[in-house]
Amino acid sequence: xxxxxxxxxxxxxxxxxxxxxxxxxxxxxxxxxxxxxxxxxxxxxxxxxxxxxxxxxxxxxxxxxxxxxxxxxxxxxxxxxxxxxxxxxxxxxxxxxxxxxxxxxxx
Length: 107
Fold this sequence. Notes:
Shape: elongated
């Protein structure tokens, strides 16, 4: 990891995912620890799937980073979405029709 100045970052401790439902204030949802500072190939991507959302509700998310000595960054850009039911898949008209077994010609 690197600071915006390009210097190496060795004191990054975690990322905190904040969530807001509707227009409520942001609340911490989960803290993702960064524990690979001394590894040969540090982890470059972090992910989290929020399994507590409900269809029809709107959510906003942002991320802050924390150093190992307790400093917290400014929040990231906000992401907003409304969870909806997925649309049914359209039939694939280019697919081959199902094969049918022909009757055997043997007596």
